[in-house]
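Hi V.,

Quick status before I head out on leave. The structure for the redesign project is tokenized and pasted below; the design run finished overnight.
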């Protein structure tokens, strides 16, 4: 059955003629799930019931007396089993009559609680309804003797259960019900005038019955009434359909309210639409609350977007190492999100403005735009004049500039504002502009101008502060990368200055090479050294101080000197490294390093090699026949960790071997070993180095060895030091 909860009732058109009476009323009230009856007051009979009301008394055939319809629907006053019974009791007691009876007698009922038999299988509890009745007195003639009866559901289980407790609430609802404004129009008269309005209409709109009757209800509309809603109403009226819509209306005093309007056609027995019934409700509070919610929601969404954008920008920025990367990232983040195009200027080391970066959302797709951008790039920065808003920000004259309309600004500047640059900027499209400085601790490092052409809405406050936020972060990052670049350059210079000039030693051919890392973050710390020993022979060192910055380069400088000083007397390699350990520990020098130290003493048969490794990758020995082997014995702990070792722990003794003339000793840092595989792997690296070494011509010079190995190191993310020493054949 159709229940009072049946929301579908909202969309149902009344059937043209079901033979239920001469006047049919549509199923339209403020809450569309209400039941509606129309009662003929002369006959005291129900002549129309909408789907919902029919569901209350499915057996009833209209027209039917009000009493019989009440009985069929099982209506009862609250607290009584049967409305008719209750009414009879009330009459016999001389009290008030039941609401439906009173309506049938032509009295208005502004909202009273009743119960109806519940027809769902789920429960046999009675359904609590409240009823209001509106005699259509004053309506056009054919309806003047009718009354409209509306049943609204009290959908509260507790209300249904406890009549007493519910009474107050129901009264409140009843009061609300009287606020529902009802109107009826006559479609047979020109311009479908109103023929009846109830007092609630007057209360809601300020127009009296007399003022309203005879006019089309559009007098409630005004300048800001949504034309789309009106078009919808027109279309429904033209096709005789029901409709519920919400539109802005104007009271008589000019104040506005949101009107939730429901209209439905009324048909005569031939099925022709004679009237429309309208129900209006002032839903301003609800609409405004919804609008406030929507606004809050979109603000939150905008703020969320902004936060996500800033977070994305910050994390991408953290990966930037060069000022140019920061500038490119700024452009990438700002266009097209904050504007159509942008111009970013930065100052170089010597305080000169660099060529700007210009990014335009259509530069990649529109050759005309690309040409304009290229032309502007040619003109800037030389033609940046002092009246330029960008210059004002770059020079620190202004903090942040928001230009609503570039044309107006140029007009205000007169001749000063006319230049090839301003013309080009206008041609590219500059309605609005936001210019923010790239600020850092050290002052203004540049400025970014975000421009919007006419295709974009004017910049809102959110865009302006977004540009400001991004420029501020960009400025700080720019400064970091500039400082970083400076430190890298200084580190590389220091590193080079600390590397020794190779000595010339009879009987030996020596070559070495230092290659800074391609990943410039990794510069610093690797070294090689070759020096004559006091009693003859040479000391050879290759080492790697932990860390990659100016400090580690400086520590490398100290450490190489220390190793050289302890090695110079000709001290055995492992004792030299032990002495270094002791110095590092005793002096509290904070250095961690790996290194291999070897001594090579020449004799008539070639040379005697002794070496000791402090956690360093093994050296390679290339025999005169080209065969390459690894010198992986004699490994002790790295330098700078001796205090962590058990007391009394000693470095293993030297590994010594005789080298025949033509042998080449090759020592290197892990930057070389690790550059043969994406993931550092000592075994893979050493194997590859041995292969490369053994494939060289028999007589390969140390220079060829060093260059071949270091050139093959494709992935030198780390810096590389490599040294090769060949014992020359005395002949
Ligand atoms: C209306 N109309 C209407 N319009 C409005 O702004 N506020 C209202 O309360 C009502 N109430 C109303 C009740 C009934 C029963 C009908 C049939 C219509 C709509 C108005 O009268 C008119 O139909 C619309 O403005 C669209 O038609 P026009 O103005 O384009 O001719």
């Amino acid at each position: 059955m159709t229940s009072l909860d049946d929301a579908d009732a909202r969309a149902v058109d009344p059937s043209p003629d079901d033979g239920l009476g001469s006047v049919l009323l549509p199923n339209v009230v403020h809450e569309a799930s209400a039941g509606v009856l129309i009662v003929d007051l002369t006959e005291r009979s129900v002549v129309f019931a909408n789907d919902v009301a029919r569901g209350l008394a499915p057996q009833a055939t209209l027209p039917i007396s009000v009493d019989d319809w009440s009985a069929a629907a099982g209506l009862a006053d609250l607290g009584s089993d049967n409305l008719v019974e209750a009414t009879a009791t009330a009459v016999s007691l001389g009290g008030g009559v039941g609401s439906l009876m009173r309506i049938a007698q032509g009295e208005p009922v502004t909202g009273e609680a009743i119960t109806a038999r519940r027809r769902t299988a789920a429960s046999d509890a009675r359904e609590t309804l409240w009823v209001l009745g509106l005699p259509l007195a004053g309506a056009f003639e054919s309806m003047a003797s009718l009354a409209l009866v509306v049943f609204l559901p009290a959908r509260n289980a507790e209300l249904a259960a406890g009549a007493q407790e519910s009474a107050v609430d129901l009264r409140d609802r009843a009061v609300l019900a009287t606020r529902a404004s009802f109107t009826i129009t006559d479609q047979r008269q020109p311009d479908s005038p109103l023929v009846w309005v109830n007092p609630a209409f007057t209360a809601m709109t300020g127009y009296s019955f007399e003022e309203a009757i005879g006019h089309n209800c559009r007098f409630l509309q005004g300048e800001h009434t949504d034309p789309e809603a009106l078009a919808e109403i027109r279309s429904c009226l033209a096709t005789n359909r029901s409709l519920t819509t919400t539109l802005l209306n104007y009271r008589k005093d000019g104040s506005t309210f949101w009107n939730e309007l429901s209209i439905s056609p009324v048909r005569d027995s031939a099925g022709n639409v004679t009237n429309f019934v309208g129900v209006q409700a002032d839903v301003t509070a609800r609409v405004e609350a919804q609008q406030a919610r929507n606004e809050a929601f979109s603000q939150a969404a905008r703020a969320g977007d902004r936060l996500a954008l800033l977070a994305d920008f910050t994390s991408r920025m953290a990966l930037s190492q060069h000022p140019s990367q920061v500038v490119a990232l700024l452009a990438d983040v700002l266009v097209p999100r904050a504007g159509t195009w942008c111009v970013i200027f930065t100052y170089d080391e010597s305080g000169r403005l660099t060529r700007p970066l210009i990014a335009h959302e259509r530069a990649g797709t529109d050759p005309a735009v690309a040409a304009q951008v290229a032309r502007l790039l040619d003109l800037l920065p030389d033609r940046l004049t002092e009246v330029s808003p960008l210059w004002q920000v770059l020079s620190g004259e202004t903090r942040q500039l928001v230009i609503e309309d570039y044309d107006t600004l140029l007009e205000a500047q007169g001749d000063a504002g006319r230049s090839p640059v301003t013309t080009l900027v206008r041609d590219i499209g500059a309605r609005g502009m936001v210019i923010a400085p790239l600020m850092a601790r050290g002052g203004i490092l540049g400025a970014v101008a975000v421009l919007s052409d006419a295709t974009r809405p004017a910049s809102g406050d959110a865009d302006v502060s977004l540009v400001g936020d991004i420029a501020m972060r960009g400025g700080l990052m720019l400064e970091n990368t500039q400082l970083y670049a400076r430190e890298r350059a200084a580190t590389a210079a220091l590193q080079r200055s600390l590397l020794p000039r190779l000595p010339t030693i009879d009987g030996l051919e020596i070559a070495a090479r230092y290659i800074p890392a391609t990943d410039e973050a990794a510069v610093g710390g690797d070294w090689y050294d070759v020096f004559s020993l006091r009693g003859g022979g040479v000391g050879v060192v290759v080492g790697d101080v932990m860390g990659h910055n100016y400090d580690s380069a400086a520590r490398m400088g100290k450490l190489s000197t220390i190793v050289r000083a302890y090695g110079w007397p000709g001290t055995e390699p492992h004792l030299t490294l032990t002495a270094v350990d002791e110095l590092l520990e005793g002096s509290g020098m904070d250095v961690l390093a790996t290194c291999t130290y070897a001594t090579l003493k020449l004799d008539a048969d070639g040379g005697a090699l002794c070496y000791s490794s402090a956690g360093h990758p093994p050296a390679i020995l290339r025999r005169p026949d080209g065969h390459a082997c690894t010198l992986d014995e004699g490994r002790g702990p790295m330098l700078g960790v001796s205090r962590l070792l058990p007391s009394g722990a000693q470095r293993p003794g030297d590994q010594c071997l005789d080298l025949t003339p033509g042998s080449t000793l090759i020592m290197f840092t892990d930057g070389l070993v690790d550059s043969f595989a994406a993931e550092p792997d000592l075994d893979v690296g050493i194997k590859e180095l041995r292969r490369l070494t053994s494939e060289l011509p028999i007589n390969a010079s140390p220079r060829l060895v060093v260059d071949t190995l270091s050139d093959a190191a494709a992935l030198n993310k780390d810096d590389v030091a490599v040294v090769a020493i060949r014992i020359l054949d005395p002949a």
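Above is the designed sequence. Confidence is low (pLDDT under 50) at residues 1-33, 79-97, 155-177.

G. will cover questions while I'm gone.

Best,
W.
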